[in-house]
Amino acid sequence: MAPTPQLYGRTLTHGSDPTQLALTYDDGPNDPHTLRLLDVLAKHEAKATFFLIGKYVRQRPEIARAIQASGHTIGNHTYTHPNLIFVSAARLQQELGDCRKALEDAIGAPAPLFRPPFGGRRPNVLRTARHLGMEPVMWSVTGFDWSAKSSDAIVRKVVSQIDSRRRKQGEIVLLHDGGHLAFGADRAYTVEATRVLLKKYSTAGQSSPGKKFVAIPELTR
Which of the residues 33, 72, 81, 176 is marked catalytic? Predict the structure, then answer.
């Protein structure tokens, strides 16, 4: 479940260009916070990647369409968000297939990126995803926003990892616009943290250049 090891198969964890940042959001679509995120991202002309849960896409397909219309990338986050380490091969196929169908019905196009819930993966999980034409995407920076007590706490977590002198790469940041336990999770802290991060990193400072916020397909490998 750790995001960066490649023991069970190759996954994308970061890019090669340290001037790029890829914000990614899991567990949507979610009303109203996904739509608020779209507004914040648009103000900074930033692109992001949203890994959507299929059952929520069925519930609110218009939010998925709004993500697509705003120029962001959409990925498969399974249909019900199980930990794929513990599911059968048949259930794995169903989770990925049902989410893919929900996404195609909503946005009229395939979603070729895949993120396993909780980061849980076995060799068969990655093989199955690739057999279905999907690229597994993990992350290099964690915002821990699912348990944060404030937006400042999220920002501190992300900044401390991005600004580490050891990290000379394009980071993939894990955040959440929804919650897997129920539709309607409060992600106001994540929306505000996103605003702060966009403001902090999109402008060049005296000590470092500004960063470009890109969706996963635009990340330099």
Answer: 176
Burial of 131 (0-12, 13-18, 19+ CB in 10 A): exposed
Note if 186 is an active site residue.
no
Catalytic annotation present for 72: no
Residue 209: domain span: 14-218
Indicate whether 82 belongs to any domain.
yes
- How far apart are alpha carbons 166 and 148 in whole angstroms? 25
- What global pTM score does this model have? 0.96
The domain spanning residue 32 has which CATH number? 3.20.20.370
Q: CA 148 → CA 143, 157, 180, 202, distances in Å?
A: 9, 10, 16, 24
163 lies in a domain? yes
Q: Which of 26, 27, 145, 177 is catalytic?
A: 26
Report how far residue 27's alpha carbon sits from residue 192's, in angstroms, rounded to the nearest whole number. 17
User: pLDDT tens-digit profile of 25-61?
Assistant: 999 999 999 999 999 999 999 999 999 999 999 999 9
**In the chain, how many domains are there?**
1
For residue 55, being part of any structural domain is answered with: yes
Q: Is residue 128 part of a domain?
A: yes
